[in-house]
UniProtKB/TrEMBL annotation:
Residue spans crossing the bilayer: 12-32, 44-66, 86-109, 121-139
Keywords: Membrane, Transmembrane, Transmembrane helix
Keyword Transmembrane: yes
UniProt name for this protein: Cytochrome B
């Protein structure tokens, strides 16, 4: 089961990154073009939000079944080694912050009344989340 979940988490990462990049570019073009923020634009924001939320759930499961996750964190010396620290602490924590940012950006975009501010909320929050996620991907193990 662990291998299946690992493959799912690894494959979903492509979808997550593609979704965030797509919404970031789309919202930036919308803001620069001074377009009206419609319900279609709100729904486009879900392309970044939904895969990310699914990835969060898969990540939490993997954290408790992988030897690199919680069990490593509680083993005592995970903080001394940079790779252990990445899997046990930095990757999960930074990604949870990224999920919160994307959720806030999406909710703000829905509520704001100025069209440009709605687009800005999407590209700024999704853009920062994207950078955070990219900064803590275990690149050497992935791809
Ligand atoms: C939300 C965005 C996330 C993305 C884009 C992401 C992406 C990735 C990638 C690309 C890998 C390497 C997979 C491989 O070696 O093939 C990985 C591994 C891992 N991730 Fe995530 N992750 C995310 C969230 C999380 C969260 C929230 C947690 C925990 C709460 C988590 C826990 C882990 C663990 C424990 C591993 C190591 C699994 C193993 O090889 O045994 N991830 N993640």
């Amino acid at each position: 089961m662990q291998t299946g979940i690992q493959h799912l988490h690894s494959g979903m990462a492509y979808l997550v990154l593609a979704g965030l990049i797509a919404v970031f570019i789309y919202a930036l073009i919308g803001a620069l073009g001074n377009r009206n923020f419609t319900d279609k634009d709100r729904k486009f924001g879900l392309i970044g939000l939904i895969p990310l939320h699914i990835q969060l759930l898969v990540g939490i499961i993997i954290y408790f079944i992988s030897p690199l996750g919680f069990s490593n964190m509680t083993s005592g010396n995970a903080m001394a080694d940079s790779v252990s620290r990445l899997y046990a602490l930095e990757h999960p924590l930074i990604n949870i912050i990224a999920v919160v940012l994307v959720t806030v950006g999406y909710s703000r975009a829905k509520k704001l009344t100025q069209d440009r501010a709605s687009f800005r909320s999407l590209y700024m929050f999704y853009g920062i989340a994207l950078l955070l996620i990219l900064s803590r991907i275990p690149w050497s193990a992935w791809m």
